[in-house]
Amino acid sequence: MNKLEGISLWIILNLITVALMDIALFYQGTPAMKDATITKKFLTTEFWATLQWLFIIPASRIGNKFLSAPQLGLASFVYDFIGQVVTNIFWLKIPVTIDDWAAMIIILGAMYVSIYKIFG
Q1: Domain extent listing, the chain
Q2: Measured distance CA(25)–CA(49) in Å, rounded
Q3: Which residue ranges does UniProt annotate as crossing the membrane (predicted)?
Q4: How many CB atoms lie within 10 A of CB 25?
């Protein structure tokens, strides 16, 4: 697998991971689960979280080939933020606040500093 294929696969795996994470986090609060027992909510969340790990492990291994551990951690925040924005707008129907955007700018700044080694 060349570098472009690796990066492409890493992006796809991260997008799948974010989708599964948001389902695991928020599905239990949807109208479909309103009358579900705590056991059903737990098992449903655990199912989606387990599927998430099936994708996050290979995504991390691939990401380690071209990102350092801190960069990989920051990149996961970027994907989480993108997923949260999409989930808020299209599924949960709640606004994305200015604080959310400010936090994202700080994370992107940290990524820039980490990748380009601004401080040596």
Answers
A1: 3-116
A2: 8
A3: 7-27, 101-119
A4: 16
